[in-house]
Amino acid sequence: MVDFSYTKAQLDLQRRAREFAQEYMIPYAHYYDKTGAFPRPIIQKCWDEGLMNLAIPKEYGGPGLGVTEQCIAVEEMAAGCAGMTTSIYVNTLGAEPILIAGNKEQKEKYLKPLTEELKFVSFACSEPGIGSDVAGIETRVEKKGDNYVLNGAKFWITNAPYADYFTVFASLDPNQRHKALCAFIVDADTPGIKTGRPVEKMGHRASTTSAVMFRDAEVPAENILGSEGEGFKIAMQTFAMTRPSIAAFATGLAKAAMEYAREYVNKREAFNQKLREFEVIQFKLAEMYMKIEASRLLYLKAAWTADNKEDSTVPASVAKAIATDVAMEVASEAVQIHGGYGYIDQYPLEKLFRDAKLYQIYEGTSEVQRLILGRYVLKGYKPAMEQIPKWLNEAPPSF
Ligand SMILES: Cc1cc2nc3c(=O)[nH]c(=O)nc-3n(C[C@H](O)[C@H](O)[C@H](O)COP(=O)(O)OP(=O)(O)OC[C@H]3O[C@@H](n4cnc5c(N)ncnc54)[C@H](O)[C@@H]3O)c2cc1C
Q1: For the segment 311-329, what is each residue's pLDDT rounded down to a tens digit?
Q2: Closest ligand 1 atom, residue 122 Cα
Q3: What pTM, to 2 d.p., does this model score?
């Protein structure tokens, strides 16, 4: 049976996340967007409310929630402020490689502290010279005695200046591409690690993004995740678990944009009528609603696949590709409905429009999702028609 209803616990989580967004995020979103300051008080409150680190299993002090619950919560929070939610959610992204490939000691040492007080973990994969091509990572790692030694630079690392530790992807030999990638847990206070200045961004300005440099940074051998050469697999498995949430982020932003537009058309008049009276405007709202509904169903399917321990790579790419395009389209139409007021910072739409763009870029661009899906249709997809029946220009015989 297919069941589209949320459980009582899921509804409760949704309500708590929604109330948190309305009480603590929306009122301060403009301030953090303007200043680009790190919203630590809001994140602390989120941690206090038990809305952070949702994936951490109960045995390590977390609530042990599934991808579905993570998606339900981030949809609500991203509707409040995309940037703050990115800064909150990045702990889940950073911790996911440990959940996937960490041993018991690593989980005890690195996951548990996240649930005891507010601590940050960042996911350090992208570099100045590579983003989409994860197998092309150039940060080098060398085994020296009981340590691995890291040299290189990461870029675009969310929350990097505040991170207590990083999950880092590095190569034993860049010529060997994906076969040589390794993943590590790296304490941020390791000698030889420096973080760069936060970069000024178009949107998501409440989340801090900066470079991380490694110069002869020595990491204890026991901090490798899985074994040598497993880094690429760990990164891809991580994205399969986290991309449904990016689709949920995008759905939340689109939902907020539609709700601001709905409110506006009920108030604004043109040609002696409320905007809501124009059929063209109603059709715009209808398009928004249809697309948001479709996005939510897609992220729920991807999350359900992940929670059922099946490979969620394909449904996660479908959900991310579609929901992030929807967020961009809906934000753009919501700006349009607001006319000039959509273009100024006294209304939330211009921020939502800038914030929406990032969803098509991080955690695998829209093009990368389509690469994955194109390959799947050609190589993995099982056609319903094993052999294409003949296409005849004849009336059927009597069957
Ligand atoms: C605000 C922000 C926060 C981020 N946070 C993090 C983080 O916390 N951790 C982290 O590791 N990374 C992070 N990233 C990095 C992000 O994941 C990358 O920017 C993204 O993967 C794209 O990589 P790139 O910027 O190097 O673009 P490129 O890979 O250089 O791509 C440039 C363009 O070419 C296209 N392209 C590339 N290859 C192909 C192809 N084979 N076929 C067709 N088109 C292609 C891309 O889709 C894109 O349009 C963040 C980025 C931003 C902007």
Answers
A1: 999 999 999 999 999 999 9
A2: 8
A3: 0.97
